[in-house]
Every structure is written in structure tokens, then in C-alpha cells.
Amino acid sequence: MTEKVLHANIPVFVPHKGCPHRCSFCDQRAISGTQRAPSPGEVTALCREALAGLPPRFGTAEIAFFGGSFTAIPREEMIALLEAAQPFRGDPRFGGIRISTRPDAIDGEILQILENYGVQAIELGAQSLYNRVLEANGRGHTGEDVRRAAGLVREKGFSLGLQMMTGLYQSSPEMDWNTGLGLAALEPDTVRIYPTVVFPWTELARRMESGEYQPPGLDETVELCARLLGMFEERGIRVIRLGLHNENGTAQRALGGCFHPALGELCRGRLFLERLLRRLEAEGKEGTPEVLVPPRLLSQAAGQGKRNLAELRRRWPGLTIRAGAGIEEDFLILYRNEERKDDQGGVVCG
Ligand code: SF4
To answer: Is the distance from CB of 17 to CB of 69 less than 8 angstroms?
Structure first.
């Protein structure tokens, strides 16, 4: 079996660099734990060190400028940061440059500069496609800006990433779902989904303290994000992040909102449960179901803390979930007394 080659990120945080103002939810210093953007010399040193120490299981490493509005950084400073990465172009371990920025800081001229400096992937902070939500959260751009910028990025042949948030002030699960559908229609290569987390000293913290804003809870968020995840993946769009990383004490700093260190796992488990429920209901067979899954999907199928298993057993007492070798689909359902096609043992869950 050929071993999967992984690709690493060399994150370079430029907290709030280029941001024209502070959005209602944002504290990049709290999220990234970085107080200031590195100098170009520091960027070069960071990349050199990261590439030299790249573990063999990683084929390449990509430099990722995150945490600010990269293309709104004063032009000379932005170019100096891009220059700092140029010595590595041509190195077989160097996977290119990724940047994240605001949709209203994209135009033909800036894209030409990014192309000249070897940028391959551009992520746009869309957050919502509803102007009312964008305005209420101080974004300073419109849904139309997102559509226009995404079109330009794709036209120029960059890899397009879109970031969205759920649970923002003045939004609703239905609006977040529609935003997801609208973003999918822009055909991004990748998506990141960030449920809102409330950090101290932000506008959202003030609104939450005054009672004007109540962020959605974990169950509601998992339900919505699982649907979004399924919808994007059905369309061949990779969801490369679900929820903030639990680095730099994010959990301790958060005042409210939906933060869970294993949010992605919770959502994948929920998605698996919904697909299993749909299949079991559609088959409507007599007998006790036995669900066979490939070993890599066993914990997803059982759900965190075996919550899926518990839920399924409420409807089908005695149901088991079992890892079996040679299962090609995500799951296979047998019913007690049905002839077993897989009888090679395996890890039984529950
Ligand atoms: S959300 Fe983006 S544009 Fe807004 S303050 Fe944060 S980094 Fe800047």
C-alpha cells in the first residue's frame, strides 16, 4: 500500500495587519497568540527552519500568511513579506504560498502581484452573504464583494478558499445554511467553517454582556455544521477546518460562543449518524442491525463518547457497530440471521 504524502503548513501570523477596522468578533492576538507580525527577515528564518526540520512523512510545506488582511497591508510591506518567501521557490519541499484576506481587498492589480510572487492559494473571509449580518458585525464589505472577489480569484487560476462563520450577531441557522449554499455555488476548492467564539474586549463581548446577543449552543452548532459539512463534501468541496484551533489558551480566553476542541469530530460523527439513520429507515427491515464499517471510520460511526450508538439503540435495541476488514463503502448494514459476508472478526463497538 502506498503511504499517503502529507502537506504541512508554515503558519505566519500577521495579526490585524491591513485590517481597516476591527470586526465585531475578532481578536487575532487572542486566536493566534501572536502580538506582532514578523519582519521579512524573521519570515525567511522561520521558513528555512521549518523546511529543514520537515518530517519525512510531509512531502511539502506551504507558507500561510494568516490572521490579517494580507492584500490590504501597505503595498511595500506586503511585497517585502512575499519577497521573504522567494528564496524557497524551486525547493522541492516548498509547497507554495497561501494568503488570507478580505473580499474587498481583491482586484486585478493585486492578483497580478500575488501571481508574480508565486502565491497559489487565496482564502477570502466571507463570513456571511447577508449584508445585514455583515453590517451588524462591522465587516465593512457586502455579499456582492465576496461573489466578485471569488470570481476574480478563480478566473486568475488561484486555488480559492472561502471562510464562513455561523452564529454571528443578527444571523440565524437558516441564514448560515443559505450562506453555505451561496458559497458552494462559487465553487471554492476549500472551505473553513468557524462557529462564533466570543473573546474579551470585542464588540460581540459587549453585546453578549448587555444581553443583546446570545451565541448558539453546542448542540445547535453541531447540527448545523454537520449539515454544512455534508453539503460541501457532496459537492466535492474540501472542508479544511471546522472550528478554531485550541492553541494559545483559546478555550480559556473564550467568554462564550461555541468552542469545542473536537468540533470537527463531533460534526463528522453527527453526519455519520444522520446517514445511518436515513439508510436504516429507508431499508425498514426486520431484525437487529449490525453496522460494519472500515476500521478507520469506527470512532466516527460510534460518535464521540459513543453517543451515536446510544441514539441508534434507542430505536434499534441490540444494534452493534463493528469494524470489519475489506468494507469498501463507508458502512454496510446486515441484519441478524442474514448471511454474514464479513466474518473476519474486527473491533466491536458497544
Ligand atoms: S476578521 Fe479579518 S478583517 Fe476583521 S479584524 Fe479580523 S483579521 Fe481583520
So the answer is: yes
Type of residue at 256: G
Phi, psi of 269 (to 5 degrees): -65, -45
> Which of 14, 22, 23, 24 maximizes ligand 1 atoms within 8 Å of its Cβ, making it the mutation to test the pocket?
23
Which residue CA neighbors atom 2 of ligand 1 most closely? 68
Q: How far apart are CA 285 and CA 303, in angstroms?
A: 23
Rounded to 10°, the helix 307-315/263-283 angle is 20
Give the class (CATH, top level) of 6-261.
alpha beta
Rounded to two decimals, what is the model's pTM?
0.90
Q: Where are the domains of the chain?
A: 6-261, 280-349
Regarding the beta carbon of 69 and ligand 1, being less than 6 Å apart is answered yes
- Could you state, in chain order, the average pLDDT of each consecutive group of 10 residues for the chain (350 residues)? 72 93 88 83 94 89 94 97 95 94 98 97 98 98 98 98 98 98 98 96 96 96 97 97 83 87 94 95 93 94 94 94 90 76 46
